[in-house]
Specification:
Order of helices and strands: HEEHEEHHEEHEEEE
Distance between the termini: 102 Å
Structural class: alpha+beta
Radius of gyration: 25 Å
Helix content: 25-40%
Shape: globular
Largest sheet: 5 strands, mixed
Number of strands: 10
Number of helices: 5
Strand order of the largest sheet: 2-1-10-5-6
Oligomer: single chain
Length: 179
């Protein structure tokens, strides 16, 4: 009795691979078009500011840049972005000696897209009062922020814990209690 060697047919596999590749290439333009239609992430600065703002990553890139390095759970990250004080100044909100009388009774409420919120007194964000600045970051280790971090992040490099360094930052609401 002799055994007959049966070779598997490879042509169906080649046809399946070609069909899969054709499907992927046909979907790629649709995926690109869909991402082109998605709204660009922004940061809104509103409330008691003379000039409310809606800032994109390109807007932030055109502003004076700052860099901070943090270490969390043994992992070091270098963030780049714009100091929140500079963002408030762009909105026309004066910080420093001339604005202390009314602004020190105010606050900034930072809101994330997931509902997380952090409250800062104006004094905490004024570089004329404190060295503990807040950075509105748009890159980490020279890569744009994305995915679960959102496009923008608030980083407070001098905080002992990262609880106020919020990801998915969406807005800064300025409130003055004395106007």
């Amino acid at each position: 009795m002799t055994a007959r060697l049966v070779r598997p047919r490879r042509r169906p596999l080649l046809a399946l691979a070609a069909a899969t590749a054709a499907l992927l290439f046909s979907l790629a333009p649709a995926a690109h078009a869909q991402s082109a239609l998605a709204p660009e992430p922004t940061i809104t600065v509103r409330g008691d500011v003379p000039t409310p703002l809606v800032l994109t990553a390109a807007d932030l890139a055109a502003m004076p840049r700052a860099t901070v390095t943090t270490t969390n759970n043994g992992m070091t990250t270098t963030y780049r972005g714009v100091w929140v004080a500079d963002v408030l100044a762009k909105a026309g909100f004066a910080l420093g000696p001339a604005a202390r009388r009314n602004s020190l009774s105010g606050y900034v409420l930072a809101r994330a897209t997931d509902g997380y919120q952090v409250l800062f007194s104006i004094g905490e964000l004024d570089p004329a009062i404190t060295d503990g600045q807040a950075l509105l970051a748009d890159t980490a280790n020279d890569q744009p922020l994305f995915a679960e971090n959102g496009r923008f992040r608030l980083v407070l490099p001098k905080d002992k814990r990262g609880a106020r360094s919020m990801r998915m930052l969406a807005s800064l609401d300025v409130v003055l209690l004395i106007k």
